[in-house]
Request: fold
Amino acid sequence: MKLTCIFGHKWNGCKCDKCGEIRDEGHSYTHFQPSATGKCVGTCKCGKQQELEHDWVGGKCARCGLRWDDTYEYAISMMDEKNYYDAFKCFERIEQGSCGGSFEDKKNNCITQAYEHISNLIAQNDYTHFDYVKHVSGSLFQMEANRKTFGKKSYTYTEKVDEQICSVIKENIDKKDYKSVRGWINSLNYLRSDICKSINSDTMNDGLYGVAQQCIDEKEYKEALEWLQALPRDYPNRAEKLEECENIWRHDSRNPDFCPKSTDGKHEWKSVPGSEKKIINGVTNPIYYTDRCVFCGREERREYVDYDAIREAYKYNY
Reply:
């Protein structure tokens, strides 16, 4: 004890204002920060730290400001709900935040479990799973793209998923189950555009034609056109089916380019007087105007840009 406090300290919390001595009581913890242990850590002016449970208010800690969806517990809960992508992103945010630490093993675990989950669904060959498989496989692709790897990025699990889907597509083509073929092709991840690579080309083309025919039977002519156009030009009956679908779709009321009052189903556009103009650096650009069909009265807003006028106005700035 210093002589200044011989008759007693003047305590201000844990510190004496007169001699500066520190005692292990009366601490005042402030400047709270999230810790790697998942706690809320406050620091006293004397340097001592204390860990407390987070004070959650509306999804955010009232002391340290940590969001609930940036916590280890949140990531684990997402994995329990099979929401592997959100868990993966949460582990990334924890790594990049003030808590620090490495969660590569946890992120790799997210990728592995996501693959196993998708693989089990594909093996069931259930048409109700198409959209969900597409969503989860897209998330799998994003996780593999974000994973820290040395050298070239690896999409091992995404490629395995696409190969498994291709196998199921072939199986359904053999069974002539074109409804399933259609769904599984649509669920393929965009990483592989060469979907026919692992399937015999003739078999795949038969599948595409079968899907197109199913679309025609369901009066989905626009989609049928897309499947037919994916076929080789010399595929039997392709040209005839294309012409048939194009003629029907041209006069289909669902076609945005169809005019119900013209004889050929085509609009005839005529400009409506009174256009909106925007002046840019003394040049009237762009010019907005309206076209109206002389048959059905449908209107469409157009934009015209006079690039020659723009070049003339800015020629000294080039």
Q: What stands out?
A: The mean pLDDT is 79. The CA atoms of residues 263 and 295 lie 10 Å apart. The two ends are 79 Å apart (CA to CA). The first strand starts at residue 11 and ends at 12.
